[in-house]
């Protein structure tokens, strides 16, 4: 049973519905992993740390030594370091700069009337933001984008076989490149500290000891992946949702105050992160099925967010949905550190796109190409067309809300 062909990854929800109804806990025998599809089961796997560990071991070996693959007390200490850079005040302070970056990314395309939304805007914007937070020079942004893609493609390791081996091998090569690159940045920060996240990592301590360059490299990889992939897919998926549901786009234009609610509904309806990794610490019974100890478990967030026992009419994209207790950013101690940043980027990106790109539509009826990483949901390419416009000499007044009419 191939759970990950392109056609399924473009629209996994019919399969999710089928499995959630018939087998909410499903054993993928060829890979010896377990998938959990219902809301309650997924939420338990995310929060029951006595039964489910985040320190997973995929078929290709040990997972990367990132905060997301750690358990308390180590997780608690590492998370406290990163949270210093993701305070509500520091995230809010990024808003003016994100608006500038959004404008600058759209300007070169606005007069052409067409662009690849994923490659030309939704991918670069979060990468530029995280690069500035880390203090990476602007000329190295393309390199960071390549690093991020290779890191996220490690998700193929769960499947084993040639594709997994290729992903692991490619990452090993790029990791050495990152190691050399990062060593230069770290040395520069030690000579001249700056007001950026990399300086905070260089100066941070755990149990009275400074982080090693290996520790900082692990943080660097995690922040690249977590700080870019979710926001990229959130922006792309939002445009897909509105193009597929023009009545909801009309509703948003008539009531711009629904923008925050609309973003939450995109997160639920087309969850950027479809599944996460856990490993059973002991034999665990879920819905009458016993998952043995030491087994890889995939709580399927994308399915949980379409569970009819939790959401009324879950297949409908409803920008006014209330309540909307989705788990798109996880739940509990591993709740996504970058959630507030991703939401802010979407609150800026969507009004810019909807205001400036008049007559927005897909450039082709061909099925869109999914991103390579199998745990995420969103397009790798999304060609769009629109009525040619003018560059923004200054940031458009009122661009913080979708244009009415």
UniProtKB/TrEMBL annotation:
What domain of life?
Answer: Bacteria
Q: What class of enzyme is it?
A: oxidoreductase
For the biological process aspect of GO, one term held by this record is: cholesterol catabolic process
Q: Which EC number(s) are documented for this chain?
A: 1.14.-.-
Under the heading Gene3D superfamilies, the entry gives:
Cytochrome P450
Asked whether the UniProt record includes Iron among its keywords, one would answer: yes
MF terms per GO, please? Answer: cholest-4-en-3-one 26-monooxygenase activity; heme binding; iron ion binding; steroid hydroxylase activity
InterPro entries, alphabetized: Cyt_P450, Cyt_P450_B, Cyt_P450_CS, Cyt_P450_sf
Alphabetized UniProt keyword annotations: Heme, Iron, Metal-binding, Monooxygenase, Oxidoreductase
Q: Which PANTHER family match?
A: BIOTIN BIOSYNTHESIS CYTOCHROME P450, P450, PUTATIVE (EUROFUNG)-RELATED
Q: Which family does it belong to?
A: Belongs to the cytochrome P450 family.
State the protein's name. Answer: Cytochrome P450 CYP109C1
Q: Which organism is it from?
A: Sorangium cellulosum (strain So ce56)
């Amino acid at each position: 049973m191939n759970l990950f062909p392109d056609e399924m990854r473009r629209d996994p929800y019919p399969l999710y519905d089928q499995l959630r109804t018939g087998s909410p806990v499903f054993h993928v025998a060829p890979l010896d992993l377990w998938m959990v599809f219902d809301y309650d089961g997924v939420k338990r796997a995310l929060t029951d740390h006595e039964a489910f560990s985040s320190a997973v071991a995929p078929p290709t070996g040990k997972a990367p030594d990132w905060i997301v693959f750690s358990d308390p007390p180590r997780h608690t200490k590492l998370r406290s370091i990163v949270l210093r850079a993701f305070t509500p005040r520091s995230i809010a302070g990024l808003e003016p700069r994100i608006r500038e970056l959004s404008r600058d990314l759209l300007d070169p395309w606005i007069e052409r009337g067409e662009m690849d939304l994923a490659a030309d805007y939704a991918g670069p914007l979060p990468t530029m933001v995280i690069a500035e937070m880390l203090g990476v020079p602007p000329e190295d942004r393309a390199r960071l984008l390549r690093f991020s893609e290779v890191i996220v493609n490690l998700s193929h390791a769960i499947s084993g076989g040639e594709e997994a081996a290729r992903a692991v091998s490619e990452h090993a090569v790029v990791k050495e490149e990152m190691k050399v690159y990062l060593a230069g940045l770290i040395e520069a920060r030690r000579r001249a500290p700056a007001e950026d996240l990399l300086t905070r990592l260089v100066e941070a301590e755990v149990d009275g000891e400074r982080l090693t360059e290996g520790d900082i490299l692990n943080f660097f990889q995690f922040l690249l992946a977590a700080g870019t992939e979710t926001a990229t897919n959130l922006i792309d998926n939002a445009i897909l949702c509105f193009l597929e549901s023009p009545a909801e786009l009309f509703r948003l234009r008539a009531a711009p105050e629904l923008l925050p609610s609309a973003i939450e509904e995109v997160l639920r309806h087309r969850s950027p992160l479809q599944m996460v990794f856990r490993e059973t610490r002991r034999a665990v019974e879920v819905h009458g099925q016993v998952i043995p100890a030491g087994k890889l478990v995939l709580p399927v967030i994308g399915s949980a967010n379409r569970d009819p026992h939790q959401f009324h009419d879950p297949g409908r994209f409803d920008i006014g949905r209330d309540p909307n207790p989705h788990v798109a950013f996880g739940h509990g101690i591993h709740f996504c550190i970058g959630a507030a940043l991703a939401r802010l980027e979407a609150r800026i990106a969507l009004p810019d796109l909807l205001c400036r790109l008049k007559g927005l539509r897909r450039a082709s009826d061909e099925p869109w190409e999914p991103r390579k990483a199998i745990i995420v949901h969103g397009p790798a390419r999304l060609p769009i067309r629109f009525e040619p416009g003018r560059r923004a000499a200054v940031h458009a007044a009122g661009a913080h809300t979708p244009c009415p009419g």
